[in-house]
Amino acid sequence: MAVIGIDLGTTNSAVAYLKGEKPEIIPNTEGGRTTPSVFQLSINDEIIIGQNAKNAMPGMPDRTATEVKRLMGTDEMVMVGGQSYRPETISAHILMHLKKSAEDYLGEMVTEAVITVPAYFNDAQRKATQKAGEIAGLKVERIINEPTAAAIAYGLENIDKNQHILVYDLGGGTFDVSVVEIFEGVVEVKASAGDNNLGGVDFDNALTDWIIENFKQTDGIDLFSFGTPEEINQRKARIKLESENIKKSLSSQTNVNINIPFIAIHNNAPVSVNMSITREEFDALIKDMALKTLVEVDKALEDSRLGVSDIDEVVLIGGSTRVPLIQQLVEDKFGKKAKKDINPDEAVALGAAVQAGIKTGQIDTSKGIMVIDVCPYTLGTEVVRQIGGQTVPGFFDPIIPRNSTIPITESKRYYTVSDNQTSVNVNVFQGDNQYTDQNIFLSDFILEGIPAGPRGQEAIDVKFSYDINGTLQVEATIVSTGRKASAIVKTQAGTMTEQEVSAARAQVESDYEKSELYQEVKSVITRGERMLNSTEGLEKEKLMSALQNIKIALEKNDRALVQKYEEELTDLLIELV
Questions:
Q1: At the topology level of CATH, where does 377-488 sit?
Q2: Which residues are catalytic, by number?
Q3: What family does this chain come from, according to its entry (predicted)?
Q4: What is the CATH number of domain 3-199+288-374?
Q5: HEC-encoded secondary structure of 287-329
Q6: Which end of the chain is more exposed for a tag (fewer CB within 10 A), N or C?
Q7: How far is CA 117 from the centre of its chain?
Q8: Please, what CATH class does the domain formed by 200-285 belong to?
């Protein structure tokens, strides 16, 4: 049974598998090598995933969800077609689509996967991604960082080289950079940095705003000042989709004409957008964002204790690295041409497939590749400080420094802060600020049973263990008695319970099967609904009854019943012709 590698992206996703010891992309059911990460409810409440959903988005933006990856790990709900969804559930539908594509292509069941996440995803975001995989019916064998996966794909083709590479990964919604050493078949991540809210969609948004403002100045019409909310949303969706196409065109052209016909009706007259933009103008719109990525590059270099001159190769990953300004800034910084011989849209999925092969033993690590990764952020606990004779809480004490090699276990010893203290609350945080309120709260637990005594008499050892999947376990021990308390950190906000995951898994599976069934009988239902307009009396009643029967069978997700009523409806349509 195959284990697949999945790149679950903000704007596009991909799936790969190992053919022998070489990774290969699995095309989706439409034949595409990547799948837009777009979720849509049709007017019939049919779930549509991928390119078809993206194509239909301008006409039904309120029934479409995009860029959901940015909401992973939060408790924010996504409204689609009047229905409320958790980000994990929408991501699960995308994963289910990729899973089914893999099963169709490979001709076998797929139940396990390695899924990638941005290196700078926090604990909650990683757990949410794992939950999405479980909802999709996948055992998530490993969660790995996207630039690490790309480095694996690169390393597989350059396994005999000893070198330092910098993986610059600018995707649709996130940016990551990793400094990686490759030596004797080992791929070792030395440091990672990134920004979870910087990517190609931000370039699209900047261009969308520019088009709207430019049209307002040249034509005197504010496209968002009139019409219904639905019409305004449709305009924005059309312009944003066009902005993405313009951005792509500007990668190969220095000037692009912008033509969006019949974008609105204003003062009883049709309105169209006609203008042009140069690459230089586009570069000015995105330059500040592009420069932000170099700040993260410097951070990763500093943490790896390497300089620009120590980097042998720069590998560009993610579709947004096709933007000429990005390539220019990176190449100017390192004084060399970036490597572009690996497909930036596919490298992460290919690397995930290799990691899956390592996990299953399909790739022999004694003869091939071994991966060493890092924890990209600092993990620690809250402590108090004595300031001016006062005990002041709210200070952050690091236990696992950022960019520590994983798996890792680190401990620190602390002491009671008050007389007769019998318990301690262990608060767990992620971040680099000295104050806990400026960092990300992860979890807490209480250790009780401390022997009463003077402050400072009793010692408590706090141990943090961070594994290769990014799961943190914290244990606190009273040194004098050996009494322990521990917890696998479960982030408070945005985390689904096991019961919620089970319910969501059943619902997603049912939704997908209903969608498949609907596609099989869609044409006969459409013919029946059209014929309703040309029938009357008893014939119309029979037709309405037949349509109702097949729709009820679809709701029950009963394949045998659907097929029975499809045959009856087909026979009736033949009679009525």
A1: Substrate Binding Domain Of DNAk; Chain A, domain 1 (2.60.34)
A2: 7, 69, 146, 169
A3: Belongs to the heat shock protein 70 family.
A4: 3.30.420.40
A5: HHHHHHHHHHHHHHHHHHCCCHHHCCEEEEECHHHHCHHHHHH
A6: C
A7: 6
A8: alpha beta
